[in-house]
Amino acid sequence: MTKKINLFASLKSDFASGLVVFLVALPLCLGIAMASGAPLFSGIIAGVIGGIVVGYLSQSHISVSGPAAGLTAIVLTAITDFGAFDVFLLSVFIAGVIQLALGFLKAGSISNYFPTNVIEGMLAGIGIIIILKQIPHAFGYDADYEGDQAFIQNDGSNSFSFLFDVINHIQLGAVVISLISLVILISWDKVPFLKRLKLVPGALVAVILGVVLNEFFISSGSTLAIGKEHLVSLPVPKSFDDFKAIIVTPNFSAITNPQVWVVGVTIAIVASIETLLCIEASDRMDVQKRYTDTNVELKAQGVGNVISSLLGGLPMTSVVVRSSANNNAGAKSKMSTIIHGVLLLISVLSIPAILNKIPLATLATVLILVGYKLAKPATFMHFWEKGKYQFVPFIATLVFVVATDLLKGVALGIIISIIFVLRGNLKRAYNFKKEEYEDGDIIHIDLAQEVSFLNKAAIKQTLNDIPENSKVIINAHDTEYIAHDVLDLIREFKETRAIDENIKVKLKGFKEAYELENTPDNNNHVSIEHYYDVAKRALVKKQEVKEDF
């Protein structure tokens, strides 16, 4: 059941987070366009459409869409083969139409089968990629383009060997600005009186100070001055004709070219899978634990790619880097995403010369902190403590996301998770019972003997369909094993939506849960540590629980 949200209810925090995402997205849009062999403004157009159009149509409150690094190889090859950007745009148009069809066919439901440890491994892997790729920019070495996520780079070096090259290309002014930016960003989250300045994000302060410092270095003739090659490089239209040249439309005369259709289908599949992965990750990051209708998301992405192609923009997906920055900046609703798109549109048309004064070192520092929050040591310890069946898929996903790419890393993680589940399910049967109910009835949800992450979709849908002011009994009397994903799902339902919508929840067969419910100061809360304790025991002891609401 989806609650209606007032987009303007949290405008203060959403504007601040939208501003941060705008600062992060600007160089990424340009860098990905450059790497794709496309006009630079095509990346900006995709970012604007991803923010305003997809942001409005999507039901996700955290995710941010825009041109994705995962599509650069496909885009570059296609543009090179076609020899014309307008022919490639036709493929993007076709991809958008296919995504719309996938949304109506409810293909988005496959995201429910992505295990949590694989999603978390993907996020941690992307966090490490961000850190590895942004450290050179923080030191003033900008040989690799912004937004590159490939382990093996175009010059033959890899992400690790490239770090050693930094030693020979350190720009002292960039280091000074990076260190000052780092102090500002950390202080903004730690110092009490600075934390109260919610409307002014630390990233904006760091960017402004970086610009001011570099302008001072330039005016004083200091050797610390950062050159243009180390600043944001946005094209500056000088006339109305220059603006008109930005808009390129698809060449529909190439509709009979089979290769155009092949590229369109490829973009649709890859973009859709990356989007579903990001949406699942964004829902995991959302502190309010709101669920996104992935079928609506595919439709939103389809509309976004159709419009982007008609205006000369690159194909887009929901993007983890921008979504993580959005979440870390305190976004409350999708208004943040829309604001970031509006800021992109206004700024590139009105103040490109000012934006071109922003040091890449400052933006690199912002992204490094985003990467750290995705791959912080506590996440590794969390899965280590869960045991090998959780840790191995997590770490395998992480390593392969870093060493290959997002899709291959996630595919490997899912394969390993399935092998573990099949091994555990070899002699176990699954039975999930969902009873029909009417207003005023008590809803009984009986969990089976074996509940794995493969059952997550059915349970998630059942919990989502429960109306407000209901009474629910979730019975685990006969359950021997419950996957962590399902335990998290039940916990999040009980601690968030159940409280918000006055749904009374009784847990039966969850030993620690029952004990907590009978403590006088519980206030309808069950800690995750107790749930994990239950799962680790492998056998949930039967108990007789009085159904007393």
From TrEMBL:
The keyword Transmembrane helix applies. It is found in: Membrane. The keyword GTP-binding does not apply. Keywords: Membrane, Transmembrane, Transmembrane helix. It is a multi-pass membrane protein. The chain crosses the membrane at residues 41-57, 64-82, 88-105, 117-135, 166-187, 199-218, 260-279, 342-371, 391-422. It holds the Pfam family Sulfate_transp. Residues 11-397 form the SLC26A/SulP transporter domain. It comes from the Bacteria. Its main location: membrane. This is SulP family inorganic anion transporter.
